[in-house]
Amino acid sequence: MTAQENAAPSSQPSRSSLGATILTWVVLLGLTLLTSLLALVDLGAATPIIGIVIAVVQASLIALVLMHTLRGSPMVRVVAAGGVLWFLIMMLLTLTDYVTRGWLTASGK
Amino acid sequence: MTEPADLALREQFSTPALREQFSNIDQQRESSTLGMWIFIITEMMLFGGLFVAFTVYRLRYPHAFLTGSSEMEFTLGAVNTAVLICSSLTMALAEWYAEQGKGLRCAILLLATAVIGAVFVGIKFFEYYLHFRDHKMPAFGFSASGGLAPQIQLFFVFYFLMTGLHSLHLIIGIGLMLGMFAPAFSGVITAKYHTPIDNAGLYWHFIDVIWVFLYAIFYIPGAHLK
Questions:
Q1: Of A10, A49, A57, B215, which is most buried with the most CB atoms under 10 A?
Q2: Which residues are within 8 A (CB) of B142 and not within 5 positions of it... i.e. 6 or more apart?
Q3: Amino acid B156: pLDDT
Q4: What is the DSSP letter of B100?
Q5: CA distances (Å), B97 to each of A19, A80, B109, in order?
């Protein structure tokens, strides 16, 4: 293989563009600033929820753009999405069990 | 069937860029990325269990956990979040230059990522020192006023466990960046063969994902109480 052939990019387009990467970085920093400023205001029970929602947006941006799931191969995207889905199901079912314990009273207890 | 160009690539390096079980470099890259994602999913399970446990106790002891959150070094946490996001940019740029076959620029950006990661760890350990000084480190003279002290201590147990595990991952990531430096610098990483940089990038960005959630659950809720 010649140096020119070796330097040629792969035939598989699987990467986010440079512009999208830098834009994502700016948005991530902006969201960090936003969540930090909102945290300084007493919003009651909404404060932690807003924090988590912004974290979910940030994590999604990182996964989609920086981790290239947006433009990855179908196989990788299915595995990544399936992994996250089953992970969320496990978390949800476990939390449903723990959080609802004591909500119902059983006779004899 | 293996392409002649891929055979040449296989012969070019003492450590074969194309392993013999793969037909071509794209198939190898996809398999490698797939393996890395499966590893990341196991890491999600590891951290996920801790997040679930934290949530259960957060709902059980809301006031104590809010008080614990108000004891965080909020400014340092916010700065560290920005620092880690900046390291994700340098990592992403390193991946981009690797794909372009610009090994030197890739190597410099890997080094920058490692340095920024080290800054994060340094700030984190400084925070740990402040908590130790203020008697907020469980099992090391922890003290808190009021009847909620045991529950506040539980908050700090989660804090040290989860951020400590995250820092351990980051230190491993810094080792990865330094380990990738020589291959990138010496030209082993090319436009055709840059899978190790891609996978190191996936790992690094995953560490970033974990941190944004750690920041949200530990630092955000009690920041307004300071």
A1: B215
A2: B135, B136, B149, B153, B156
A3: 96
A4: T
A5: 14, 25, 9
State how far the Cα of B11 lies from the Cα of B17, in Å rounded to an integer: 8
Task: Show the tokens assigned to A4.
Answer: 């020119």
Inter-residue contact B117 to B87 (CB < 8 Å): yes
Degrees (nearest 5) of the Cα angle B185, A7, B36? 65
Computed over every residue of chain B, the mean pLDDT equals 91
| pLDDT tens digits for range A56-101 | 999 999 999 999 998 888 999 999 999 999 999 999 999 999 888 8
Q: Looking at the complex, does the CB of residue B46 fall below 8 Å from at least one CB of chain A?
A: no
AA letter at A87: F
**Distance (Å, rounded) from C-alpha B174 to C-alpha B211?**
15
Q: Do B89 and A52 touch (CB under 8 A)?
A: no
Residues 6+ apart with CB under 8 A from B79: B123
Burial category of A51 from C-beta neighbours within 10 Å (exposed 0-12, middle 13-18, buried 19 and up): buried
Tokens of B178: 């330094």
Chain B contact present for A105, CB below 8 A = no
Picking from A58, A16, A82, the residue whose alpha carbon sits closest to that of residue B213 is A58
CB B153 within 8 A of CB B144: yes
In one-letter notation, the amino acid at residue B144 is A
- All residues of chain A having their beta carbon less than 8 Å from the beta carbon of residue B33 are 14, 72-73, 76
From start to end of B23-156, where are the E strands?
none
**Confidence (pLDDT) at A3:** 41
Task: Give the three-class secondary structure for B15.
Answer: coil
Alpha carbon separation from B60 to A100, B45, B57, B130, B220 (Å, rounded):
11, 22, 5, 27, 18
Contacts of A18 in chain B (CB under 8 A): 93, 96
Show which of residues 71-90 on chain A sit within 8 Å of chain B, judged by CB atoms: 72-73, 75-76, 79-80, 83-84, 87, 90
Contact (Cβ atoms closer than 8 angstroms) between residue B163 and residue B72: no
